[in-house]
Design a protein that fits this description.
Radius of gyration of chain B: 63 Å
Distance between the termini of chain B: 42 Å
Helix content of chain B: 40-55%
Structural class of chain B: alpha+beta
CATH topology of one domain in chain B: Heat Shock Protein 90
CATH architecture of the largest domain in chain A: 3-Layer(aba) Sandwich
Oligomer: heterodimer
Strand order of the largest sheet of chain A: 2-1-3-4-5
CATH superfamily of one domain in chain B: Histidine kinase-like ATPase, C-terminal domain
Shape of chain B: rod-shaped
Number of strands of chain B: 19
CATH class of the largest domain in chain A: Alpha Beta
Strand order of the largest sheet of chain B: 2-1-7-6-4
CATH superfamily of the largest domain in chain A: Response regulator
Radius of gyration of chain A: 19 Å
C-alpha cells in the first residue's frame, strides 16, 4: 500500500478526490490531509506519505513553496500539483521543481487515474529502501535537539525531517530515539513548545492570528485546531476566560 | 500610409559625430598640420639663410680687417725703410763713438719720420754695441737678450712683425703694441750696423678696425697675445690652421654667433663673429613660400566646400528627413531633393522601401481586422455561454430529481452568478445588480469554505438604481475574504452598506479580518496600474478602475485597525445630479 496525502484549502476538493478514485484498486490509501502548506509540514513526519496531491493557491505557504521544502527533505516523494489556475507563471515555476505532474482543476478522473498508474509503476520499480543508517544518537544529542527546538520553534518551516537533516541523523531513527529518551514524540515536543508559548501570549490578550504567527504556525486555522487539541478549549474561549478570571 | 511606433531611441544626435563635423574636423586637422610643417620648414630655411648671411658678414669683416691691416702695415713698413736709410740715423749707427750731436741728430731724424704718421708709439734704433736712441712716450722695458733678437737678425733686414716684439718690449701700461723690427745693414759694405724697432699703438687698430666694425673682431697672434678687439674670441685661436677661412658656430655673450677666422697677415690672426643680422628673409623667399601656402589652403577649402555641397549636405538632409519620419511615426516618403548620384538612388530606395512597408502594414491591418472580427464572434459566444447555462439547467433538473436540494441551490446560484457576471459586456450596471453578483459570489464562497463568515447588508432603497462600474464590489469582498477573514482563522463578518450623502453615492465594504497597516493601505492606494502577476491586483486594480470612473483620486478611502477590521469606502460623486440631468434631457 502506497501512502497518499492530500493538501488543499478546500475541504470539498479533498473530499472529491478521496471519493472519486478507487484507491484500494490502485493499492493506495489516503493517510491524511492538510488544509495548508503549514499544516502539511507539521504532520508530514508522522504520515510519511509516498504520494502527495497539492494545490498551488493556498494561504500562508503555497503549493510551490511546500513542494520545494518537502522535496528537499523527502527525496523519494512523488508530488502531483493540482490547480485551478491555468497560469503560465505557475507552470514555469513547477517545471523547475521535481514534481511528477501538473494537473488542472476541475479534475477528470481518468486523467488522475493515468497519472497515478504512472506513479505506481515508478514506485514499484524502486528498490525497497534500505533502512537508513544514520549516526548513533546519544542521549546528549537528544537534549541538544530539545534545546534547539526550544530556541527555534518560531521557525514555521522546522519539522522532524529538517532537524534530522541538520544534525545528520536519520529521521526515523531520531523519531524512535527521541520518544525513547523523552517519553513523547518529536512532533509532540515541538507542539508543546509552541503551545506553551501560545498560552503565554494568550495571557497578553494577543489576537489569535498574531499568536499563531509568533509561535511558528502562521496558519491560524490549523493553529486554532492545535490549540484546542492541546488545551481542550478554543483560543478565543481561553482568552475570554482569562479575562473573566 | 501606416502609423508605426518606431523604437523610440534616445536621441543620439548630440553625441553622434555627423559627417559634416567629421569633415570640418579633418580639414581643420589638415590645415593645422600644414601650418605646423610650414612653420618648421620656414624656421629651418630662415635659420640656414640667416647663418649663411652671418657667415658672409663675418667673412667680410675678417677680409676687411685683413685688407686694412695689409694696407696700414705696408705704410708702416715703408716708414721703417725710411728710417733705415735716413742719413742721420745711419751716421749714428756707423759712428765709432757717437757724439752728442750725432745722437741728437739721430733722434731728430726719427722724429721727422715718426711724425709723418700718428699712432706710432715709439721707435728704437740700437747700435751693435747696445747703445740706442729712441723716442718714447712712456716707460718701456726692452729685453735685448730675448731669442726674438735672433729671429730679427735671421730675417736679414726684412721686417719682422710681432705683437709686443714677442715679449721683447713691454709698455708700462701694458697697452699692446705692434712691433715692426728690422736688422739695419750698411748699404755699401752690407755689414750689420744695428737694429730698428717701430712700435705701433694697438689703439690704432682699435680705432681703425674694431670701432668701425659692427661685428665682434679680434686681432692676435698665435701665442694668444691680443692686439686689439674682443678678448673673448681669443679662445678660438686654435681653429685657425692656415690662410684658409675657418668658420664655426660659437656662443658669445649669450648669443649664438658665426665665427670667421683666418691668418690675416703673418703673424696676425683675425677673428670675427657675427650674431645679429639686420637683414630679414628676402621678399622673394616669402613670396615663394606664401604662394604654395595660399594654394594649399585654397585647395583644402575648395575640397571642403565640395564635400559639404555634394556629400555632407545631401546626407544631412536625408538624415533629417528620415529623423522626421521616425519621430512623427508615419512612414512617409522623403521629399528632400537629392543630387542625381548614389545619394539620389539611396533616397529613392528608401522611398520604395517605405512604399513597400506601407503596403505590408495595410495588408497586415486588413488581416488583423479580419482576425479580430472572427475572434469577436468567438468571444461573444463565450460571453453568452448558452451551452453552459443549458447544461447547468439539465444538471439542476437531475439534482431535483435525485432530491439533492443543496446541489440544486448551488447550481442555481452559479448559473445566476455567471449570467450577471458576464452581462452582455456592459461596463456599467445598477447597484442592485452588482449587489446580486456579490451576494451570489459570497454564497458560492460559503459553499467552498463552509460558514467561515456571515454577510450582512445595509442598503438604502434609493441607491439601488444608481449606475456604477461593473464588478467593483465583487473584487472588494473577494479581497475581504482572502486577505481579511481567512488569514485570521476566526469566523468573520462582511458588511456592505450603501447610502446617499448629498449628491454622492457611498458604498462601504466592511470586514472583521486581520486589517491592514498604514503601509499596506498606502501601497494599495498608491498603485497606478495593476499587474496581473501581483497578488494585490484585485484590490489595487479595482481601486484604479473606480478612480478612473469617478475621475477623482479620492474616490476610494480605506480605514482599518490591525486585527480588528477593514473598511473600504467608495464615493461616487454627483450621482443624483447626473441622474436628474439625464432625466431632463
Amino acid at each position: 500500500m502506497y501512502r497518499v496525502m492530500l493538501i488543499d484549502d478546500e475541504t470539498s476538493a479533498r473530499r472529491l478526490l478521496q471519493e472519486s478514485i478507487d484507491w484500494k484498486a490502485l493499492d493506495m490509501e489516503i493517510v491524511g490531509e492538510a488544509a495548508s502548506g503549514i499544516e502539511a509540514i507539521n504532520i508530514i513526519d508522522e504520515l510519511l506519505p509516498d504520494i502527495i496531491f497539492v494545490d498551488i493557491n493556498m494561504p500562508f505557504m503555497n503549493g510551490i513553496e511546500f513542494t520545494k521544502l518537502a522535496t528537499e527533505r523527502y527525496k523519494e516523494l512523488m508530488i502531483i500539483i493540482l490547480t485551478a489556475h491555468d497560469d503560465f507563471e505557475y507552470a514555469r515555476q513547477c517545471i523547475r521543481l521535481p514534481v511528477v505532474d501538473y494537473m488542472l482543476k476541475p479534475i477528470v478522473r481518468q486523467d488522475v487515474l493515468d497519472v497515478l498508474t504512472g506513479v505506481k509503476e515508478k514506485l514499484d520499480a524502486k528498490k525497497p529502501k534500505d533502512p537508513e543508517k544514520g549516526a548513533e544518537i546519544a542521549a546528549s544529542a537528544i537534549d541538544q535537539i530539545c534545546q534547539y527546538l526550544q530556541e527555534n520553534f518560531t521557525d514555521s518551516q522546522i519539522n522532524l525531517a529538517s532537524v534530522a537533516q541538520q544534525f545528520g541523523f536519520s529521521a526515523s531513527y531520531l523519531s524512535r530515539k527521541f520518544k525513547q529518551e523523552k517519553g513523547k514524540s518529536f512532533v509532540e515536543f515541538l507542539m508543546e513548545c509552541r503551545m506553551e508559548r501560545a498560552i503565554e501570549l494568550a495571557g497578553t490578550n494577543a489576537k489569535m492570528f498574531c499568536t499563531a504567527g509568533d509561535v511558528g504556525i502562521p496558519d491560524p486555522n490549523y493553529f486554532g485546531r492545535c490549540f484546542k487539541k492541546y488545551t481542550g478549549i478554543s483560543y478565543s474561549e481561553y482568552v475570554s476566560k482569562l479575562h473573566q478570571g | 500610409m501606416a502609423k508605426v511606433f518606431l523604437t523610440p531611441k534616445v536621441n543620439k544626435g548630440n553625441t553622434r559625430k555627423t559627417l559634416q563635423k567629421t569633415i570640418v574636423a579633418l580639414v581643420g586637422i589638415l590645415i593645422g598640420l600644414f601650418i605646423v610643417l610650414f612653420a618648421i620648414s620656414t624656421f629651418i630655411i630662415g635659420k640656414k639663410s640667416n647663418d649663411e648671411f652671418k657667415k658672409q658678414t663675418a667673412e667680410t669683416a675678417v677680409n676687411n680687417a685683413v685688407y686694412t691691416l695689409e694696407g696700414s702695415l705696408t705704410n708702416y713698413n715703408y716708414l721703417t725703410r725710411l728710417l733705415m736709410v735716413n742719413e742721420r740715423i745711419v751716421e749714428y749707427l756707423k759712428a765709432e763713438e757717437p757724439t752728442r750731436d750725432q745722437i741728437y741728430e739721430a733722434r731728430h731724424g726719427i722724429y721727422e719720420i715718426q711724425n709723418l704718421y700718428s699712432y706710432i708709439d715709439s721707435v728704437y734704433i740700437f747700435r751693435n754695441d747696445g747703445e740706442y736712441v729712441g723716442t718714447e712716450r712712456a716707460v718701456y722695458e726692452i729685453d735685448m737678450e730675448s731669442e726674438e733678437k735672433d729671429h730679427i737678425l735671421e730675417a736679414f733686414g726684412s721686417t719682422v712683425i710681432t705683437i709686443n716684439g714677442n715679449g721683447m718690449i713691454i709698455k708700462s701700461d701694458e697697452e699692446p703694441l705692434l712691433t715692426l723690427a728690422r736688422a739695419v745693414y750698411d748699404i755699401n759694405s752690407q755689414k750689420l750696423i744695428g737694429m730698428l724697432f717701430m712700435n705701433v699703438s694697438g689703439q690704432f687698430f682699435e680705432d681703425a678696425l674694431i670701432k668701425t666694425s659692427k661685428e665682434d673682431l679680434c686681432i692676435m697672434d698665435r701665442n694668444g697675445v691680443i692686439l686689439c678687439g674682443n678678448k673673448e674670441l681669443a679662445e678660438y685661436v686654435g681653429l685657425i690652421e692656415s690662410k684658409e677661412m675657418t668658420f664655426d658656430e660659437i656662443e658669445l655673450g649669450g648669443t649664438r654667433k658665426i665665427l670667421a677666422a683666418t691668418e690675416g697677415f703673418e703673424p696676425l690672426l683675425v677673428l670675427a663673429a657675427c650674431g645679429t643680422t639686420t637683414r630679414t628673409i628676402s621678399l622673394s623667399f616669402w613670396i615663394a613660400i606664401f604662394i604654395p601656402f595660399t594654394a594649399f589652403i585654397l585647395v583644402i577649402t575648395l575640397f571642403y566646400l565640395f564635400l559639404k555641397a555634394n556629400i555632407a549636405r545631401p546626407i544631412g538632409q536625408l538624415t533629417e528627413a528620415m529623423e522626421q519620419t521616425k519621430s512623427s511615426g508615419w512612414l512617409k516618403k522623403l521629399d528632400a531633393r537629392m543630387p542625381d548620384n548614389e545619394l539620389g538612388e539611396l533616397s529613392e530606395s528608401y522611398n520604395s522601401l517605405i512604399e513597400y512597408l506601407n503596403e505590408l502594414f495595410n495588408q497586415q491591418i486588413e488581416n488583423e481586422k479580419l482576425i479580430q472580427k472572427v475572434e469577436m464572434r468567438v468571444l461573444q459566444e463565450q460571453i453568452k455561454p448558452h451551452f453552459l447555462y443549458n447544461t447547468l439547467e439539465t444538471i439542476s433538473y437531475m439534482a431535483v430529481q435525485e432530491k439533492a436540494e443543496n446541489t440544486h441551490d448551488a447550481l442555481e446560484i452559479l448559473g445566476n452568478f455567471y449570467r450577471n457576471f458576464l452581462n452582455n459586456g456592459n461596463r456599467e450596471i445598477t447597484l442592485k445588480r452588482e449587489l446580486r453578483i456579490t451576494q451570489d459570489y459570497l454564497s458560492l464562497q460559503k459553499l467552498r469554505y463552509g460558514e467561515a463568515f456571515t454577510d450582512c447588508y445595509e442598503i438604502e432603497e434609493e441607491t439601488l438604481d444608481c449606475m456604477i462600474p461593473k464588478l467593483i464590489l465583487q473584487p472588494l469582498v473577494e479581497n475581504a475574504i482572502y486577505h481579511g477573514i481567512r488569514p485570521k482563522g476566526e469566523e468573520g463578518v462582511i458588511r456592505i452598506r450603501t447610502f446617499r450623502q448629498q449628491e454622492d453615492l457611498h458604498i462601504q465594504v466592511y470586514d472583521t479580518g486581520v486589517g491592514m497597516d498604514e503601509e499596506q493601505i498606502q501601497l494599495a492606494l498608491a498603485k497606478q496600474t495593476g499587474d496581473s502577476k501581483d497578488p494585490g491586483f484585485g484590490l489595487a486594480g479595482t481601486i484604479h478602475r473606480i478612480r478612473f470612473f469617478c475621475n477623482d483620486p479620492d474616490a476610494v478611502r480605506i480605514r482599518s485597525e490591525r486585527g480588528e477590521f477593514t473598511e473600504i469606502e467608495i464615493v461616487i460623486p454627483k450621482v443624483w445630479r447626473n441622474r436628474e440631468e439625464n432625466s431632463h434631457v
